[in-house]
Design goal:
With about 140 residues, the chain is an alpha/beta fold. The protein folds into 2 domains: about 55 residues, Molecule: Ribosomal Protein L15, Chain: K, domain 1 (Irregular); about 70 residues, Ribosomal Protein L15, Chain: K, domain 2, CATH 3.100.10. It has 5 helices and 7 strands, in the order ααβααβββββαβ. The strands form 2 sheets. A 4-stranded mixed β-sheet has the order 2-3-5-7. The chain has a 3-stranded parallel β-sheet with strand order 1-4-6.
Length: about 140
């Protein structure tokens, strides 16, 4: 049997048309070229999720964020805390639950002049010292 090449000798294009047999002729582009044009049907069949957004990315801002308040700000907002039920007058001191008010940490900036018994998740040493110097206490879960 005669080979195809032998058979097509002298025909210039060997039956492939003008560009098909030259270099990278019949490929339709490289990579993802043409997925919204001449390779659209291929994309729909074999790679339907190629375009668009899929799922979500969970960014980590806000995770582990602590809401803190200073000793001076607690004292300044005692009336507001009492109105909302986060604080109550008990004898000569105020009982303040900062956890209910949405605060995680008590910081030691400012002065404490009123006796307060504060319940909070964490507190700095300076905050404890200032509250105790004013005749109050700070209660945290860790002690």
């Amino acid at each position: 049997m005669v080979s195809r090449t032998r058979k097509l000798r002298g025909s210039r294009t060997h039956g492939r048309g003008k560009k098909h047999g030259r270099g990278h002729g019949d490929r339709g582009g490289t990579g993802n070229a043409g997925l919204h044009k001449h390779k659209f049907k291929w994309m729909v069949k074999y790679d339907p999720d190629h375009f668009g957004h899929h799922g979500f990315v969970r960014h980590h801002h806000g995770l582990g964020e602590t809401f803190s308040i200073n000793v001076e700000d607690v004292e300044r907002r005692l009336d507001a805390f009492a109105a909302k039920g986060f604080a109550a007058k008990a004898g000569d001191a105020y009982e303040v639950d900062l956890g209910k008010a949405g605060f995680d940490k008590l910081l030691g900036s400012g002065r404490a002049t009123v006796a307060m018994r504060i319940t909070v998740a964490t507190a700095t040493e300076s905050a404890r010292a200032k509250v105790e110097a004013a005749g109050g206490t700070v209660t945290t879960p860790e002690g």
